[in-house]
Write a structure and sequence with these properties.
609 residues, 20 helices, polysaccharide degradation, 31% helix, 3 domains, TIM Barrel, chitin degradation, GH, disordered C terminus
Length: 609
């Protein structure tokens, strides 16, 4: 699991002020853009009134806590929820997560992390030989389940720019040459077209940073690279997105020309987590107080919050305490905590590992060596607890996510990002924790469709998105060319001679219904399996499910039973008695529908079987 740290800021931090003493000195020319009035501003971009903020290269007369530029709409943080997917977790032996496992009902965007860049050709590749190329297709196929989902390829990451690697200089080499920028942009476009992705997310960690192989010209060259990407994408005839990730520490942020980059990028993904890594005292890595200070770095260069997505970490930072009796934030520790059972990395536990340590029935869990009691630091908007006597961890859950979302909504952030969706507990997803502020329910709370589902379903098929009949030979399915934004829903029943098939295709473009049905995929699969075993007369419809993949049917109704019943009712409503005279195909369709609905009512469904 060496890749878990791909978006981690590896600076020894004990506080944002202490960071200012630990890192190298910033260039005065760069700092000039961060100064304002009042108080004193340290060379690292943080302002205060004590001697800590005014050393050899401090800037005088800065605003202690600058306000964000005005004009941003508030309450938008959950209108855009970006989930990162760690591709290497597809091959995890203990928490394997393939794209179809991701809770996309809670996401508007999904970023595949990561693609690498070939140092010679500047083509996008998998990050290593162990990662199958097929994952690109698997990610893109999620749009069949949720057509509104925007899928981005995230390029780079921490490992990509590691010291002593062949890939570390690649971003710099691309950015410094007009020819290389053009070549990379065209290669990126070819990748997006090949796999059907909607945009690119550049994760250069970090331009200009001397400890990361950076050069002084990276700052301006990065803007030129972003400009070239925008020019090439705009000529493509597609509406393609461009984003980039940015750090929370000034040590790395000082080499980003944020206003310049945002002329061409749609927004910035702020990595507002891992504020604390290895240090001397146990501290929360997602402390809201310090996130606010990090955001002030953006306000100082006039970045509007509407151009920023705020980051949420789906993992915790854990430590082995020096004194088991000292368990508050700020207590000294001697090492990272014991490695997680699955992640296997000292000092790092995934969301699902934290949930497995805690009980399902509250804040206290009895262990052989005592109790676990969860503490909520409401000022920092984090939770923490100790277990196994000397193990300490800070993390986020629904309560603290809501605190952060409420603050972000008040500021005017345009969205949120999750690192990472595959770190969530599969029964209780972290995405649902975040979106609890929007009343998204956990998967186990999903209820079946009500009895009047037929009326609701029929009501969704307006004249604009309902087309019947499209009775076609399935060997040449005309309905495969759906209009953009519409979902293909199929129904099939083999005719008596077994040679031909007839089908009905509906065009569904109802976001609320679509999202509701997305959540029923697990139940749908279970009922397909059950029906296949116990209702041999329905083999025709099961065969077409396999041909078009079950994903299409997740958008139709919550389960196999309802799919058959509601489809048959729609057909009967479209072709009432006597309305099929002279139309042999329609007559067969109505007869088949009635046979199906009769058969499905004869099934005695046992949900436990």
């Amino acid at each position: 699991m060496r890749y878990h740290a791909v978006m981690i800021i590896p600076v020894a931090l004990t506080s944002l002020v202490a960071m200012a003493h630990a890192v190298a000195k910033a260039d005065i020319a760069v700092m000039a853009q961060l100064t304002a009035v009042k108080a004193a501003c340290s060379e690292f971009g943080f302002c205060g009134t004590t001697k800590d903020f005014c050393g050899d290269k401090c800037q005088s007369n800065c605003v202690l806590h600058p306000k964000p530029p005005g004009g941003s709409a508030t309450g938008k943080t959950l209108s855009k929820v970006i989930g990162y997917y760690e591709a290497w977790n597809a091959r995890s032996k203990c928490h394997g997560t393939v794209p179809s496992d991701l809770p996309i009902s809670a996401l508007t965007h999904l970023n595949y992390a990561f693609a690498f860049i070939d140092p010679s050709t500047f083509e996008l590749t998998t990050m290593d030989a162990a990662t199958p190329v097929s994952l690109f297709n698997d990610i893109a196929a999620l749009k069949d389940i949720k057509p509104s989902l925007q899928i981005y390829i995230s390029v780079g990451g921490w490992t990509f720019s590691d010291n002593n690697t062949a890939t570390q200089p690649v971003f710099g080499n691309i950015a410094r040459s007009p020819e290389n920028r053009e070549k990379f942009a065209n290669n990126a476009l070819a990748f997006l077209n090949q796999y059907g992705f909607d945009g690119i997310d550049i994760d250069w960690e970090y331009p200009g940073a001397p400890d990361r192989g950076g050069h002084k010209d990276d700052t301006k060259n990065y803007v030129e690279m972003m400009k070239t990407l925008r020019q090439v994408f705009d000529k493509s005839g597609r509406k393609l997105g461009i984003t980039f990730t940015g750090p929370s520490s000034f040590w790395y942020m000082r080499w980003f020309d944020l206003p310049g980059l945002l002329k061409y990028a749609d927004w910035m993904n702020l990595m507002s987590y891992d504020l604390h890594g290895v240090g001397s005292i146990a501290q929360a890595h997602t402390n809201l107080t310090e996130i606010k200070l990090a955001a002030e770095l953006l306000w100082r260069v006039k970045v509007d919050p509407s151009q920023v997505a705020l980051g949420f970490g789906f993992y915790g930072r854990a430590f082995t305490l020096q004194d088991p009796g000292c368990t508050d934030p700020g207590c000294p520790f001697i090492a990272g905590a014991d490695p997680g059972v699955c992640t296997g990395t000292s000092g790092y536990l995934a969301h699902y590992e934290i949930q497995e340590i805690l009980s399902k029935d509250g804040n206290v869990r009895a262990l052989a060596n005592g109790d676990i009691k969860v503490f909520h630091d409401e000022t920092a908007a984090v939770k923490y607890f100790t277990w196994n006597k000397d193990q300490w961890i800070s993390y986020d859950d629904a309560d603290t996510f809501k605190q952060k979302v409420d603050w972000a909504n008040s500021i005017g952030f345009s969205g949120s990002l999750i690192w990472a969706s595959d770190l969530a507990h599969k029964a209780i997803t972290g995405e649902n924790d975040i979106k609890s502020a929007s009343d998204i329910k956990k998967s186990e709370e999903i209820k079946p469709l009500p009895k009047d589902a037929a009326d609701e379903l029929n009501g969704s098929f307006t004249r604009k998105c309902y087309k019947l009949p499209d009775i076609v030979d399935l060997r040449n399915p005309q309905a495969s060319a759906c209009d953009p934004g519409f979902t293909k829903v199929g129904y099939d029943r083999a005719t008596s001679d077994g040679k031909d098939s007839i089908a009905v295709f509906n065009y569904l473009n109802d976001a609320v219904l679509r999202d509701y049905l997305d959540k029923a995929r697990a139940q749908l699969l279970r009922e397909i399996t059950y029906t296949d075993a116990h209702a041999q007369g329905l083999k025709g419809i099961l065969d077409i499910w396999l041909e078009f993949e079950p994903a299409y049917y997740a958008n139709a109704v919550a389960n196999a039973h309802n799919f058959v019943v509601e489809t048959a009712r729609i057909i009967n409503a479209r072709f009432p008695t006597g309305a099929v005279d002279g139309n042999k195909a329609a007559a067969i369709l109505v007869t088949t529908a009635n046979q199906l609905i009769k058969s499905v009512y004869q099934i005695k469904f046992n949900p436990n079987e």
